[in-house]
């Protein structure tokens, strides 16, 4: 494998998918990674000390923000070991079971509900309390990158702490960014807010879930680096030298159902728009499943190809569970039992062998090397630690 010069620092990227309460799965992985880093460098270190870019969509955006946002001492707001505590404490209030039952009962009665499944009040209050009036430019340890989608303008809006430092109108409150990226269609209301500069100019945002633009935000995170280089007018030739040999990328999924042939051409040819939105009694949403699943796999495919093309696939680690069934495969089942099961999935995922996407079939397959995700994560931690020590 071609390697960069010994003292040349690598770009380090952490990316976390969207997936609602399934954020417990990457939460488990992140706690394991931070624990390994603490074994190497001491109990006070945090993930934001090691990653140049931390990105997340939807629930991944919440996690990324909690890992990167500063407390009063300028250190990360919470350690990775507290991510799952956050979900266990607040999950059932963000996704109240009674609201979910009432909503789908209305659907079964063929009486279309007039509002989303959840009103989002608890989540908005929680993020406002947790993040207060901190803004994107307050993040100094790393570059936070959060994809959202503006439903009014029908295009993606990518928030980053680097952009916020150069443009006041992009310096949104972290709570607003979190509520925007997590406003999943059907489940939560869209989130509207404004930013204002010293001259009184305003910019408005009407946001829904970042998963509409990037369910897997890894490419968005990597591209934010190139965008920053272009803004600094560093030159295209120099930017092109930043390839997979000079990057360490960790991409964490929130789990997916196993591959199965749910639908076929004859079936969907008879569907109306309502059928594409909801399939009962399982409450599947074929349109959302198709878009979210397809784009996430394509991102992984594209990144793996980038790294493979320069013989640096070891610099890209994707950890994803593709065997979720029943309630675990849904994004809003926050019962005690299901949350416990999701944590168990994350712990078992660490013991599984590393998997990569098969370019021919689009399915994930275990690599030939006999290495578990936990071992790969330990190797990744050692490389992150070494990078941090470079001058």
Task: Walk me through the topology.
Blueprint (H helix, E strand, L loop, with lengths): L10 E6 L7 H18 L11 E4 L2 H10 L14 H12 L2 H12 L12 H11 L11 E8 L4 E6 H6 L7 H8 L9 E6 L5 E7 L2 H4 L3 H14 L4 H5 L6 E6 L12 H4 L4 H5 L8 H24 L6 E4 L16 H16 L3 E3 L6 E3 L6 H17 L2
Helix pairs in contact: 1-14, 1-15, 2-7, 5-7
Order of helices and strands: EHEHHHHEEHHEEHHHEHHHEHEEH
Please count the beta strands (DSSP E, at least 2 residues each): 10
- Please compute the radius of gyration using only Cα atoms: 21 Å
Helix content: 40-55%
Based on secondary structure, the structural category is: alpha/beta
Q: Provide the low-confidence segments as ranges.
A: none
Short description:
The protein has 391 residues and is of the alpha/beta class.
